[in-house]
């Protein structure tokens, strides 16, 4: 667990030092990609999210959860492994009704909660960083019938890379201040392999999107997958 926390704690500490936590206005748009304002928004979670119960796995500073609570009147819980991130999220958006933040490991939170959700989502969060055979099964158990899972992960073909050919994690990294690269494990599947893992838990893929900026990115940078309970 410590090895999982350290890169993200360093990342959060760097961001906090650069921009001290303070109350913010909820973003006008939800983001799934590496480029702000590019790609789909909250519509992939459902056309009408009013009163719906949503869970974000790896909420970071809370921007997406705040958007969903403020602009779509959803009841959103954001969970993050790093307490410093949750402190930032609460400082930024604790004033917004319907936006709640909790410290915890995504898998442990899903296993411990008795709540169910209309949608669970992850934006470069826990999906891809926690063993998929464990995390996806726990997600499926916490989704209501017809519920949505949506997640974005670094594209397995970014920068000319190739997707994993097996179900093992690869060594990846988080870049923090002074371009220091801290190692972490990441599952880097293509859409077909993600689909196979989802199918084993009773979820079926409803859409896959390769996202890249048409002017800035020679390769896709983000893989966005949406699935539903059967």
Describe the 3D structure.
This protein is α/β, with parallel strands linked by helices and 230 residues long. It has a single domain (2-17, 47-229), classed as Vaccinia Virus protein VP39 (Rossmann fold), CATH 3.40.50.150. The chain has helices spanning 2-18, 63-72, 83-93, 106-112, 132-142, 191-200, and strands at 53-57, 75-80, 99-103, 117-123, 143-154, 170-175, 181-186, 203-211, 222-229. A seven-stranded mixed β-sheet has the order 3-2-1-4-5-9-8, with helices on both faces. α1 (2-18) runs parallel beside α3 and α4 (106-112) runs parallel beside α5.
Q: Secondary structure elements and their pairing?
A:
Elements: H1 2-18, E1 53-57, H2 63-72, E2 75-80, H3 83-93, E3 99-103, H4 106-112, E4 117-123, H5 132-142, E5 143-154, E6 170-175, E7 181-186, H6 191-200, E8 203-211, E9 222-229
Parallel strand pairs: 1-2, 1-4, 2-3, 4-5
Antiparallel strand pairs: 5-9, 6-7, 8-9
Helix pairs in contact: 1-3, 4-5
Which properties best describe this structure?
single chain; 230 residues; alpha/beta; Rossmann fold; 7-stranded mixed β-sheet; 6 helices
Mean pLDDT: 90
The gyration radius over C-alpha positions equals: 17 Å
Instruction: Tell me about the largest β-sheet.
Output: 7 strands, mixed
- The CA-CA distance between the termini, in Å, is 33 Å
**Percent strand:** 25-35%
- CATH topology: the name is Rossmann fold
> What number of structural domains do the residues give?
1
Write down the secondary-structure element order.
HEHEHEHEHEEEHEE
CATH superfamily placement = Vaccinia Virus protein VP39
